[in-house]
Amino acid sequence: MRNICVKVSYDGAGFNGFQTQPYGRTVQGEIEKAIKKLTGETTIIIGSGRTDAGVHAQGQMFNFYTESTIPTERWAIALNTRLPKDIVIIEAYDVPEHFHARRSAKRKTYRYTIDTGKFPDVFGRQYRFHHPTPLNVDAMREGLRFLVGKHDFTSFTSIHSTKPHHVRTIYEADFVQEGPIVHMYITGNGFLYNMVRVIMGTLLWVGEGKMASSEIKSILEGRNRSLAGPTAMPHGLMLLDVEYSSEKQG
Amino acid sequence: MRNICVKVSYDGAGFNGFQTQPYGRTVQGEIEKAIKKLTGETTIIIGSGRTDAGVHAQGQMFNFYTESTIPTERWAIALNTRLPKDIVIIEAYDVPEHFHARRSAKRKTYRYTIDTGKFPDVFGRQYRFHHPTPLNVDAMREGLRFLVGKHDFTSFTSIHSTKPHHVRTIYEADFVQEGPIVHMYITGNGFLYNMVRVIMGTLLWVGEGKMASSEIKSILEGRNRSLAGPTAMPHGLMLLDVEYSSEKQG
């Protein structure tokens, strides 16, 4: 049986998240329907992770098993013609049978984007959180530095997290400004439920001057969600990239 | 009575064009509703020109007359809080009573954008025309050069144009490439119905090698719509800017 790994981008605005839910349109549901139309097979795809309702992806990854003999290089175009316009498959690979899009993932990178313009850019309104009052981005960057490394991120995940332990490693994190647009990039070995959004919600307190950047350290050490800030809006968040060891192309 | 001139941006995807129509949601209709909510006045706004269904604007201009005493710098925020999210007012100015957003306009600039990537960028899909086969942009640029200057553009306007004469002046026009993205910029003293889209539809024939760039000259001289190419899709088109002489701020 073939194992196919696929890189997919989607505009999260029209979805009730990545993963199939009892109600609402989901990315997984639309992709499984397209595979069914193409191959006739009923399949369950394995995503590298969920994204919440409204969250976007430039490079989400999933894999699935199939008996189809469609050539590797034809999958992307064949699926795109059967998918709605807010999901675009970028590439497909044949991978070894043991490859698992979630368990085999080594690094994930997210970006959270804020528009600090007086009024929002209308063409970016669904991809950026509009925050028209000034932000101290240098202080936010200082706060973010405390999160790099291996830590217990209990303070920065939803109380509804179902994971048995909350230790994750952040490899890199930084802020980049382009005029009124502020991006936070964050790369780690994995992210807990709502983790990037709670980090951003807390750093917004720092950027607004409501909290010193050094308090991020004590919030992290407190291991208590109630110490951190609110969960930032989903539409500013984008799953940029998921990396695997070189086996994926194997 | 005050005459207020307003710069507005909108995402054309959700509108049946700028101008009020018997059916469908229009930019003009939404703005007039917002003015009514704010001032209580029933007014008809004067746009610098219409944009078709699906066409976007980064810098459309309009003016309207009002008895309201709202300070100049408060209009943008006051209207934005009463407008849907796909219309964003950028600035408002008090202008002399004789200022007319259409008749006083000196230069307009449009941009038409093509995504030549194998698959469309999902986040730009509503703002770029996806053309996945190769385009000879140098040949398109050569063809475009024949249109710069003062000409009768009958060949490049809809047969439904209601204008008494079709002579317009193109001041500047060029193509700019950024990776797979191709922009055409075109600045003139005014544009006829569908003019930028017919120019692009014809230049696409040139870019695809179906026509020599020099044929643009004979099509122009033929003054017959049937000589030119199809009307390109509306969603790639953006009204970038409308310029006035310095009187606007007067």
UniProtKB/TrEMBL annotation, chains A, B:
Substrate binds at residue 110. One of its GO terms (molecular function) is RNA binding. InterPro entries: PsdUridine_synth_cat_dom_sf (IPR020103), PsdUridine_synth_TruA (IPR001406), PsdUridine_synth_TruA_a/b_dom (IPR020097), PsdUridine_synth_TruA_C (IPR020095), TruA/RsuA/RluB/E/F_N (IPR020094). Its EC number is 5.4.99.12. GO terms for biological process: tRNA pseudouridine synthesis. It catalyses: uridine(38/39/40) in tRNA = pseudouridine(38/39/40) in tRNA. Keywords: Isomerase, tRNA processing. It is an enzyme of class 5 (isomerase). It comes from the Bacteria. The active site is at 52 (nucleophile). Residues 9-102, 147-245 form the Pseudouridine synthase I TruA alpha/beta domain. Formation of pseudouridine at positions 38, 39 and 40 in the anticodon stem and loop of transfer RNAs. Belongs to the tRNA pseudouridine synthase TruA family. Homodimer. This is tRNA pseudouridine synthase A.
